[in-house]
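Backbone geometry tokens:
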Amino acid sequence: MTDPIADYLTRIRNGIMAGHRIVEVPASNLKKEITKLLHDKGYILNYKFIDDGVQGSIKIALKYHPQTKHPAIKKLKRVSRPGLRQYANVNEIPRVLNGLGIAIVSTSQGIMTDKEARERNIGGEVLCYIY
């Protein structure tokens, strides 16, 4: 697998399109941090890290509206790829849907949203957009 973050986002996207409640993805430290961020911002219902020895996995409970059954995540878009990395300093960090969505940024101080990176006045690699 050349792009594990794209695989992670695709598994979540496919689970939403199929109407699944739970999606299981292979674990890594970067994916764990992104999952924690998605849970903190209210895009997923819950998550569980399963350590089965070698790599482990992450079980993600997807979030849907109770009456309309619409998913909380409308779109997941990978920005920085292994073939073309996208870096942004603090003045160039993009705003997703005028602040309604989030951009996940990998900085020297860890994984954070675009708003947190602007508050801390640091830039980094823009991993993906979620709204």
Remarks:
- The chain is about 25% helix and 30% strand.
- The longest helix spans residues 4-18.
